[in-house]
Amino acid sequence: MHPPSSPARQWRVQSALPAAKLAGAIGLAALGLLLAAGDPVPLTLAVAAAVALAGWAARDLLVPVRLAVDAEGITVVQGYAGRRHLPWDAVEAITVDRRTRFGLTGETLEIDAGETLHLLGRADLGASPTEVAELIRTARP
Question: Does the pLDDT at position 126 exceed 50?
Fold first, then answer.
């Protein structure tokens, strides 16, 4: 199946997020260089963490749109940088999971497509998962 060519609505990662991740990767590498002092272990660990963080930022730059909705169905990001189109009849449920930890409440949008479950948070959507769920429900034919 091919993703739709013109989504009616889409949600994406905020542009500041990959920039912050890249800045953190540079900071980790610099910290590793600062703390190395002849010992390769701190430098290796810092560079490994910096590479992982830069890879995470690269995903945000390669696939900024995490969710798109149109008359045909929903397109979600799958894997590192892939996309999957779910026709409306394949979508069984659209719910929001709320959990409280350490006094903070986190929300996750859950799109149940039978054998697959797609989870998207506020950072993925750039909006409240509750608001996005309502908009998806109203877009569903």
Answer: yes
